[in-house]
């Protein structure tokens, strides 16, 4: 029987009134080793709260031990050290997050919702002698990662060749004065980059891996910071050439970091990934493919058996959201207007103004594999203009394995 999208939603959507209603989602995850949890904005409280609660269940009931987020490695690694008691400092989660996440947009990870989750992770690790990890997989922290590399190498092998390579790489970036756009323009103008320096550094650190201690995962920290330096250099060079190229470099880096984490902890280690829907929902089921753009969800599906990867999209019809009017502008609470008519969000609302869960499987996936606009809000947002640029043409059931919808949502609570 053929259904309209509206009829298919009415037929297969399950009402969600509380956390207990996530049981079907837990069952649908099955034995997946990689679970991707999305968000339609970077400033919605419900997305963070429900991802945290679902992550707790995945940790407790299915043995997940790694959490990877759309954040900088050095900042997230401070959280990782905190929840694993690698530091003796008398600290609170709230203070730690404010100190660790200082790069704009700070509210993405320095918020009340994450603080509560970090407290839970720390207590869980301590009470059960667990080692749940919390890692950042983004590519932006070029200078911070270089500093981490130099600091560590100076401590463990101040006379070694790797520390000299690291200093050479760092000095290559010095004229840019920590401004990525200045480095990118300099490369475009003079065709002089730091490609060789960061490539040699990463290769040398990898070849000398046995020289570096694995105490408190110091070897992993060194390796990923070196990887960030190499890929961030490539990302910032690409910024002036092509938006699609720089996007692909960024998402390839995220997947490379996920794979490094899984290799380090063992390929059977199970990982939860928190990122925007535009990263975790398969790009092949959106118009991104027309611009030859890929993303994390697509790459992980291509690299792993289908049963090992499970992606959950998140969205809402209306509410409030934290965002900014321009890049590096102060954040503000904005109105998230009702979803555009005949969009995915509006159809979900039209079929019942309540929260709901859709799980896509062989019995119903084809009913949802038709094109529809699907809202995506970034850190920069103008509600008045969203109808013209914030809806991504998508085939929802091919983009995700499940979708969690909230009829009305509320703004995140920044620290």
Automatic annotation (TrEMBL):
Name of the molecule in the record: Erythromycin esterase family protein
PANTHER family (alphabetical): ESTERASE, PUTATIVE (AFU_ORTHOLOGUE AFUA_1G05850)-RELATED
Domain of life of the organism encoding this protein: Bacteria
Coiled coil segments of this chain: none
SUPFAM superfamilies to which the protein is assigned, alphabetical: EreA/ChaN-like
GO biological process: response to antibiotic
């Amino acid at each position: 029987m053929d259904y309209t999208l509206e009829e298919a939603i009415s037929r297969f959507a399950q009402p969600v009134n509380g956390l207990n209603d996530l049981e079907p989602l837990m069952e649908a995850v099955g034995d997946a080793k990689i679970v991707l949890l999305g968000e339609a904005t970077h400033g919605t409280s419900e997305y963070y709260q429900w991802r945290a609660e679902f992550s707790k269940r995945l940790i407790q009931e299915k043995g997940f031990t790694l959490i990877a987020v759309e954040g900088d490695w050095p900042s997230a690694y401070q959280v990782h050290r905190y929840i694993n008691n690698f530091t003796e400092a008398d600290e609170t989660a709230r203070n730690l997050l404010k100190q660790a996440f200082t790069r704009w947009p700070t509210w993405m990870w320095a918020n009340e919702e994450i603080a509560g989750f970090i407290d839970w992770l720390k207590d869980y690790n301590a009470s059960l002698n667990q080692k749940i990890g919390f890692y950042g997989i983004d590519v932006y922290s070029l200078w911070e990662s270089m500093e981490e590399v130099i600091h560590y190498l100076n401590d463990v092998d101040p006379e070694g060749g790797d520390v000299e390579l690291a200093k050479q790489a760092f000095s290559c970036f010095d004229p840019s004065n920590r401004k990525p756009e200045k480095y990118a323009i300099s490369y475009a103008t003079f065709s002089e980059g730091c490609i060789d320096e960061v490539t040699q550094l990463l290769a040398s650190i990898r070849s000398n891996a046995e020289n570096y201690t694995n105490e408190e995962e110091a070897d992993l920290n060194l390796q990923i910071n070196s990887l960030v330096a190499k890929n961030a250099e490539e990302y910032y060079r690409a910024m002036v050439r092509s938006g699609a190229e720089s996007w692909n470099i960024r998402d390839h880096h995220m997947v490379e970091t996920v794979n490094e984490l899984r290799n380090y902890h063992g390929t059977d280690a199970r990982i939860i990934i928190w990122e925007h829907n535009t990263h975790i929902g398969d790009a092949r089921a959106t118009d991104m493919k027309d611009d030859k753009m890929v993303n994390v969800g697509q790459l992980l599906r291509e690299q792993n058996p289908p049963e090992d990867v499970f992606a959950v999209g998140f969205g809402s019809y209306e509410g409030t959201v934290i965002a900014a009017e321009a890049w590096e502008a102060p954040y503000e609470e904005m109105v998230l207007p009702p979803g555009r008519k005949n969009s995915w969000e509006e159809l979900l609302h039209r079929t019942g103004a309540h929260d709901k869960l859709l799980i896509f499987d062989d019995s119903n996936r084809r009913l949802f594999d038709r094109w529809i606009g699907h809202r995506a809000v970034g850190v920069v947002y103008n509600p008045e203009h969203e109808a013209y640029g914030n809806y991504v043409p998508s085939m929802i059931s091919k983009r995700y394995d499940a979708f969690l919808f909230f009829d009305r949502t509320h703004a995140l609570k920044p620290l």
